[in-house]
Amino acid sequence: MRSDFRRFKDIMAGHKTFQGLPVSPGIAVANAVVLERELRKVNRQQIREGTGELEVERLRQAIQKTRRDLENHRSKAMASFGEIVAKIFDAHLLILDDEPTFDQIEEGILTENIKAEYALFRELDHVARNLSAQQVDIFRDRAQDVRDVCRRILNHLDGSPTDSMVGVDKYSILVAAELNPSDILHLDPELIIGVVTDAGGATSHTAILTRILGVPSVVGLRNFSKQVKAGDLLVVNGNSGKIIQNPTAKQFEKYTKKQSQYRSYMRSLSDIHQLEAQTTDGHSVTIAANIELPDEAHRVIENGGDGVGLFRTEYLFLAKGGLPDEEEQYREYIKVAEILNPKPVIIRTFDMGGDKAFPGIDFPHESNPFMGWRAIRVGLEKPEMLRTQFRAILRASIHKNVSIMFPMISDLNELQLAKEIFHEVQADFKQEGIAFDDKMKVGIMVEVPSVAVMAHQFAKYVDFFSIGTNDLVQFTLAVDRGNEQIAHLYKPWHPAILHLIKHTVDAANSEGIHVGVCGEFAGNPLATLLLIGLGVQELSSSPSRIPQVKKIIRSASFEECENLAHKVMDFDTSSDVYDFLLRYMKKRFADMPIWFGNNS
Ligand code: PEP
Ligand code: MG
What we know:
By secondary structure, this protein is of the alpha/beta class. It contains 24 helices and 16 strands.
């Protein structure tokens, strides 16, 4: 009764609690900035006869200011994320250069005596609607760009803050319905200290992108962004998935304290960066990182990574708004290879499709895109695209630290076809006298259950396996990884997944090939000892997770890992596995403030 009363009082005072999926650990307490996506409607307003010229001038000045903003953002993005991300602003700047459209807007103002805001909104909303109506993703993305540009100009016209995110000038928590790959560039990693989104499961690309920033984040909150106002005080608990809106004074105090404890814990891990990931009885493990953008390679080094276990090259599409050519790809691959040299880099061929339908390829509208036309399936139907990528990767292999990996293999024939094309390109290189590493290792993602089941067969034809638990879990359990509705069913702890991992590792060991895990599970501290005990030789996840995973490995013996794995493999349900590991690891590592959720 009393607690009901307290809850009622809290609600009246605006204190509310929400539960989502924790996807990037840590605690953040700050005011919210809400990422606006909708273009607010502007109603028709007349101006006095004869004032049209002044109105046009007002519009031109707003456009000029918008251009200046965009150019500033471009250089800021260049400094933080490199050229690929910076180029995204070119698409926005191009919209401002579209003379016929802006001439039409000015003409509307002069001939109909309407306000600049309305003339601008009417024209750009019309353009955006036409683009959105197309069934092709590239046009829908463009529609979003047009709306963004329109909103920016409107904000300059009426003096509102120009950008909900870029204008941020103090520590803030970003709240958004969802994040697009291009959104990461708006985020100033110095100021955005937490991210909360309505959409996304733990391994959706929204979640992966927030982890790139290494800030606490929670996803899958359904319609949270509609319930929060810019300026609301928020607590984001990236360890438990709890969000508190307008916390009480007591909660505020408790979480600010936790926030600083967490930060000092992370700082204390900096000593571990340069130490080897080796158990107390001398068993070495490779702790690598997954990257999306070439410039992230620096973060791998800073965090003490042993290499890049997965370079998701499909993000290069962001730069071009289309397919990058051989030279453009080569520049990015060699950059990563040189930053990491002599540490190894695994370059994965494009994995487009699924939730990553990038511009430049006409992706069909599919009702099941994750199981549709994506990754190697696209490559084998477009061998020229694959050849171009192979050439760029081979050219970047001159330091002998680059390997190549194929995504979404489900059948041995696909692997054989991909390898055939790869060998043809190698033969061309020999004939053309181009230098490359002719011992380059070729591997596959084990992310479709058919491959895990037949791992002993695949192991004969590749140099390494990289187990992609993000997809392996969704396909094995039939749970869409990006669907927040069923996110509670997405369980990497499921015994079926653990048995598939073990089966794959055993097959790799009996053929003497290298085996790693590169899904998000690899960075979950709860899973570290278990995966090592199962015989996994490499763990690769977001760079920010490296230090903690290393610390866990350096505190345990391989014998302990094996015993733990042995015990866990006897459990029947995912909750048995998860509950046991949570208890075990919490007790074993009582001083670690980061315990990760059960879905990644
Ligand atoms: C995976 O499926 O586990 C993986 C690492 O690849 P992606 O997340 O890019 O699908
Ligand atoms: Mg995958």
